[in-house]
Here is the input.
Amino acid sequence: MHKETTVADEKSYWEDDRLWSAEARVNLQGDRVAFAASMIPKDVKTVVDLGCGNGLFLNYLSNRSDKRYDRLLGLEKSRTALSYVATETVQSDATRVSIKDETFDLASIMEVVEHLSTKDFSQALNEIARVSKKYILVSVPYKENLKDHFIECKRCKTRFHRNFHKQSFDTGTIKSLFSNLGFRNIDVRWFGKKGDLVGFSSIYKIYKHFNPPPLQVPLPCPVCGFLNGVKSSKTERSGKRVYGYLQRLYELLNRFWPKQYKYIWALGLYERET
Here is the structure.
């Protein structure tokens, strides 16, 4: 029997420590963070990171041996996530930032804006542009097909992204993100090549469409609030075994099967127009 919740209880999802485990996050995204840090212009001395999560990016900047930054501030709505951040922090939503205009040399927002609704997306971009004195740095998933990661609510049958992604980005949308907010794009780079097994990956996507993979963290439906994945049914336990077999098969085929490569992330750097 699955537990029910309300839409307001989505907050508890973001407070789940399994989302912010330092070990899991560093192993998955550490190289991307270093790549993003390399894009920061040399004249930047102060950085505010909106939606800083567990501080993976800010902690990396703080641990630099040259200590080049005078101030590093992280804004994040999850108190659990902030417990991992080693720099100055403020618990705050990215759409409502209590910082004066043009306070920081660079405002960054890493793997955040894809989670925002259309309204919150626009508000967050405005806030980022408002608090930045010189530059903006953004990291987003690149050319993500949102439907490839949909799951289905067991009660109302609504389909939604398993990581609550609501936005998708290609090169054109990345370059134009801040074109109406006084910033021009000066650099776009791509990172994290992923090799899809030719043929097998397409079959795997079709299988996932009808048999969503098991959830690691209970996920509330954004429409009715039903909490997916609290207690596994017999069918779901069987599904976990199937995905275990598929993972081992994938690892075997990955040694010799032909692959088609694509980038996972895109990073955009923007400069305030004078």
